[in-house]
Each structure stands twice: as structure tokens, then as C-alpha cells.
Amino acid sequence: SAVISQKPSRDICQRGTSLTIQCQVDSQVTMMFWYRQQPGQSLTLIATANQGSEATYESGFVIDKFPISRPNLTFSTLTVSNMSPEDSSIYLCSVEDVRGQGPSSYNEQFFGPGTRLTVL
Amino acid sequence: AQSVSQHNHHVILSEAASLELGCNYSYGGTVNLFWYVQYPGQHLQLLLKYFSGDPLVKGIKGFEAEFIKSKFSFNLRKPSVQWSDTAEYFCAVNRGGGGADGLTFGKGTHLIIQP
What is the pLDDT of residue A31? Predict the structure, then answer.
């Protein structure tokens, strides 16, 4: 199964600044996703990070606010731009990987440890 | 677009009690269904999933879930809970039929097991 690391694990930022979160996977994966988990809320999909092309954003999320890079099959970054206190959240990277072999194989989404962001 | 509804936001049980957490989804097409668990201070982990076939699926740690298509439901069950089951539980769905797709999550259920 894929092992995912994220940097930084947490940060406290001033409003108006930007933070770039890195996601590194220990194996090549086709699909990478970015989620947000606001305090007391569930996870919300921000976008699908596509390798070699622009990310696909979900409704309510735009590239200017959350630019995403995916330079290769093991790495992606999410930038939270021009931050406000409402951006305080946990940001999680997820990858889809194949588990098992042959007819019984299936795709599973693995989640990174998350980046806890606090905006003052 | 899909949506997921989890009926219980907070559940408190005693050890050895039986557990059932409700999950309903709305989507007109084929779906994949998942239950994830997040133990305090840990990553999200997959408990079990349904892609196709037998609608009663068994996962790790004695959990199981039943997909009832007519009710758009995928309730999670465990016959006898343990203190270590204290965690946040999330039901999730994505489109089935092949092709990778991000997950739509329910709001989660915070389960507390009292010794």
C-alpha cells in the first residue's frame, strides 16, 4: 500500500499570506486528490491533481485560490493563497492505489497524515 | 453529484454493546461505498468497501456493512464494540463503473465507547 507524507505537518500563518503544502508518495500513483477538513466538519474534495495537466477542481474551489502542481507520479503541491481565518483547516492529500492481485484486486484511496493550518 | 448523510453525529455506547451507524447516499448511478475510521491522532483508514457482488461486506476489526440498494443505504455494524473502537467514522461514496474518482464524505459519527 502507498505511504504518503505531507509537509508541513502544521503551520500558523498570517492572513494575506500563502502556504504551499507538499505531498510525497513512496510509489508511482495515477490519481492524487486534495481534501479539506474544516474544524468539526467532514472531508471535502478540493481537486484532483492531474499529472502533466491542470488540476480538476470541485464546485466552490478555484485555481487562483488553490493552485495545484503535479510534476510527476509521486509528488504534488497545494497552495492556499491569500489566506483568511476561514481557511483554517486540515488539508489532506490522498492517492488511489491498487491493492491485491489479479481478479480480486481493487482500488483503494489512502490518506496522508494531513497538514493542520491555522490562519490568524 | 453525490451526497452522503450520516444520521448520528455522536454515539456513546458501553463495551460489548452492539453498534449500527447509519449511512444513506444519493446518486442515481452505480456507486462504490466506503467506511473510513479515524482514531484519535491517526490517519484515516479504510474499514471496508463495497464495489459489487455480495452486498454484505466484512472489514477489519470485526466490522461489517450491508449495501441495500433499494434504500440507498450502507449501514455499518459491529456486534460487540470495544473501548478501542472509540473513533470518528466516515461513510463515503464515489462513482462506480471504473475510473478513479474523488470521494464524497458524510459528516462523520463520533463514537465513544465507555469501559
Answer: 87
Residues B102, A111: C-beta atoms closer than 8 Å: no
Report pLDDT for A104: 66
Predicted confidence (pLDDT) at residue A20 exceeds the cutoff of 90:
yes
Mean pLDDT of chain A: 92
What cell numbers appear for A2 in the block? Answer: 502507498
Q: Which residues of chain B have pLDDT under 50?
A: none
- Cα angle A92, A95, A100; round to 5: 140
Give the total residue count for chain A. Answer: 120
Determine which of A10, A91, A94, A107 to mutate to test the interface with B (most B C-beta atoms within 10 Å).
Answer: A107
* Three-state secondary structure readout of B50-78: ECCCCCEEECHHHCEEEEEHHHCEEEEEE
Segment B48-77, tens digit of pLDDT = 999 888 999 999 999 999 999 999 999 999
Amino acid symbol at B107: K
Scanning every residue of chain B, which has its alpha carbon at the shortest distance from the alpha carbon of A4?
Answer: B43
Strand locations in chain B (E): 3-6, 10-14, 19-21, 23-26, 31-38, 44-50, 56-58, 64-68, 73-78, 87-95, 104-105, 109-114
Burial of residue B47 (CB within 10 Å: 0-12, 13-18, 19+) is buried
CB-CB under 8 Å, B46 with A109: yes
* pLDDT confidence band for A108 (50 / 70 / 90): confident
Give the CA count within 13 Å in the CB-facing half-sphere of A86: 3
